[in-house]
Amino acid sequence: MDLTWHGHSTWHVELGTTSLLIDPFFDNPNTETKPTELTPDYVLLTHGHADHIADVGEFRDATVAATPELANFVVDEFDIDEANTVGFNLGGTLELGDAYVTMHRADHTNGLMTEYEFSGGMPAGFVISDTEPAQVSENESKTFYHAGDTALMSEMKDVIGPYLEPDVAALPAGDHFTMGPRQAAIAAGWVDAEYAVPMHYDSFPPIEIDTEEFERHIQAHAPDTESVVLDGDETFEL
């Protein structure tokens, strides 16, 4: 499994012969990649804020997977072909090519449109694995947890860690709109990830952080987890 961070919360996941793009937003300072350079099979959307769905219209040949509310929204607002969408919901697992994608809740808001006129329902995160969740031992699977925009929540300790068993956790760490470095580190310990990667930071002034602070908090709150700070467009191979 190859995990490429394109800044903010935008990730390109390659698993077997399947590629997935999460939260396409390329107008951020940590990427030089253009949307036209990527040809994902699937685009996953965690929620409807503009800094997570801004470039979804660039991927009309991909299948967009999101909550039913958000899938319908991108059909209307981005002229996505309805046949190229699949709506699913919290707790559900889709088999998308070689990947199993499980949707889990995120603690955040989900306003749609730039003035947040409408609610898109519950925001989400995704657990992506090469095996069906909870069917094999942790050592026999490779699993990536994209937490979406979220606060620290007990489901990380009670459900995501023990049952979905992520190897790598991409955690928002920019504070202000999501968790900051300390809570992200606590989350890394709660999900018992082998590796923790910060995301959703440095894109604009309110969420600028010192990533060394993230690394220090990982050492303090999740000593069994290795912090991995990626440069924009850098790939981590699991």
UniProtKB/TrEMBL annotation:
Q: Which UniProt keywords apply?
A: Hydrolase
GO molecular function terms here?
Answer: hydrolase activity
Name the source's superkingdom.
Archaea
Task: Tell me any Pfam family this protein matches.
Answer: Lactamase_B_2
Which segments constitute the Metallo-beta-lactamase domain? 7-200
Q: Which SUPFAM superfamilies match?
A: Metallo-hydrolase/oxidoreductase (SSF56281)
Q: Which PANTHER family match?
A: UPF0173 METAL-DEPENDENT HYDROLASE MJ1163, UPF0173 METAL-DEPENDENT HYDROLASE MJ1163-RELATED
Family per similarity comment: Belongs to the UPF0173 family.
Q: What is this protein called?
A: UPF0173 metal-dependent hydrolase ACFQJ7_04430
Species of origin: Halovenus rubra
